[in-house]
Amino acid sequence: MTDGARPAKHNAVDMTGVRYGYLTGVRRDHKRGKSVYWLMRCDCGAEVVRNGQDVRRGNTLSCGCKRGALRVETRGTHGMSGHPAFAVWRSMLDRCRLPSHQAWHNYGARGIAVCERWQTSFENFWADMGPAYRRGLTLDRKDNNGHYTPSNCRWVTSRVQANNTGFNRIVETPDGEMTVAQASRRYGVKQNTILYRLGHGWPDTKAVTTPPNFRNSRYTI
After folding, report:
1. Most buried of the four, 156, 191, 193, 203, by CB within 10 Å?
2. Stated pTM of the model
3. Where are the domains of the chain?
4. Intra-chain end-to-end CA distance of the chain, in Å
């Protein structure tokens, strides 16, 4: 199949302007066999051509400039790779930079990012957050629409975090104001779906009442 032919379903992903790790899609570059290659711009300013599927799967996260830092993450040279806080840090990074992560639509897709100080160094994260850490606590953002930064993060109990999630966001519905969680139960639309829609500019009422299989040129799920 040539580039001018109708693309196969698995090659139809538009990566233009989408962030994957430290890379952002610029434009489709070429096709080699069944693989589509994209011109990507790294946070460092370099532009590289990479296999689109590898980028989307998280196998390629930068132009190569972060390779050393990512290798340190993998080796866990800080001696804390088995600590619960290290797992929290990795999960925080992945849901903000990998579209393949199950929670991406609530974080990276909404523009939530990790500050540069924490992006490549668990040691920096631990220096900032370690003194207040207690086993059993979870990482929480004070402003649920803010980024992961030292000033916006804290360790809290699971109950406190639950009260600070987007599920408690107030939305307008045909039956009056409700939290996202209440609207989900009332209209039978999953909470994550409602939050995803709101994050993509859907009006409140349409976000909570539209069936999950709805499609048109303006609103997509």
Report:
1. 191
2. 0.48
3. 9-56, 67-162, 166-209
4. 29
Q: For the stretch 48-63, what's the b/e string if a residue is b when 16 or more beta carbons lie within 10 angstroms of its beta carbon?
A: bebebbebbeeebbbb
DSSP codes of every residue in the chain: --TTSPPPGGG----BT-EETTEEEEEEEEEETTEEEEEEEETTS-EEEEEHHHHHTTS--SSSTTHHHHHHHHHTTTS-TTSHHHHHHHHHHHHHH-TTSTTGGGTGGGT--B-HHHHS-HHHHHHHHGGG--TT-EEEESSTTS-B-TTTEEEE-HHHHHTTSGGG-EEEETTEEEEHHHHHHHHT--HHHHHHHHHTT--HHHHHHS-TT---SS---
∠ Cα 106 103 17 (to 5°):
65
Number of residues that this document lists for the chain: 221
Q: Which are the contacts of 211, defined by CB distance < 8 A and separation ≥ 6?
A: 189
